[in-house]
Amino acid sequence: MSQPVSVLIVFYSKYGTTRDVAHAIAEGVESTGANAVLRQLPDVATVIDELKPAIPSEGELYASPDDLNHCDALALGSPGRFGNMAAPVKYFLEQTNTQWMNGTLAGKPACCFTATGTLHGGHEATILSMMLPLFHQGMVLMGLPYSIDELTHTQHGGTPYGAGRVTGMGHDQPFHSDERKLAVAQGKRLAEFAQQLKRGEA
Questions:
Q1: 33-74, pLDDT tens digit by residue?
Q2: Which residues contact 129 (CB under 8 A, 6 or more apart)?
Q3: Which end of the chain is more exposed for a tag (fewer CB within 10 A), N or C?
Q4: Domain limits at 157?
Q5: In a domain, 1, yes or no
Q6: At 32, which CATH number?
Q7: How many other C-beta atoms lie within 10 A of the C-beta of residue 96?
Q8: How does pLDDT run across 164-173, given as a tens digit for each residue?
């Protein structure tokens, strides 16, 4: 019997709101029988000689580029930073030269997700900024189709490029049911496609 598909979910979350989206994606992944592996990213130190602990004091373990070698699919998440990914996510991606040289990620499916303080906080631009390095890795990028009802009528987060969440300027706006359903759907879709690839059906 073959091993279950492993979906790596890598994210940076300063206030816990992007983490909520990551966990909803994991729920969708696990609904298919696949394994969701959640990994967070640490802050980038503003002082060059400052060292971060190897193990976080709370939450998921930190991601390592080596984690990419063992996954069948990747979900990458970041809060929006002026329409761009946060520095810790960019720093993580800049450490993946070995994976690029070896073609480790080529042909594997991937998706991206985000959270911003406002509705027009750059959801689509942030997701697109994360997609560019994944295209260079040769990954198969997946968005959200309009066949998912919530994408058509949501007045909150969520785009055809990927799941998203509007958090409010104080990062205290509840995770809306439309946003959550879209994130779960994205995780399910990603895992199902990874399973098809593994079975040679895609």
A1: 999 999 999 998 776 666 667 778 788 999 999 999 999 999
A2: 83, 84, 85
A3: N
A4: 6-199
A5: no
A6: 3.40.50.360
A7: 17
A8: 999 988 888 9
Neighbours of 123 (CB within 10 A): 25
Number of separate domains in the chain = 1
Please tell me the distance from the alpha carbon of residue 44 to that of residue 57, in angstroms, as a whole number.
Answer: 16
Are 139 and 109 in contact by the 8 Å Cβ rule? The answer is yes
Sign (positive or negative) of CA dihedral 21, 169, 124, 94: negative
How do residues 5-25 score in pLDDT, each as one tens digit? 999 999 999 999 999 999 999
Give domain status of residue 96, yes or no. yes
What would the two tokens of residue 161 be?
């490029």
- Assess if residue 87 is contained within a domain: yes
Per-residue pLDDT of 119-145, as tens digits, reads 888 899 999 999 999 999 999 999 999
125 membership: H or E segment, kind and range:
helix 123-136
Residue 178 has a CB neighbour count (10 Å cut-off) of 20
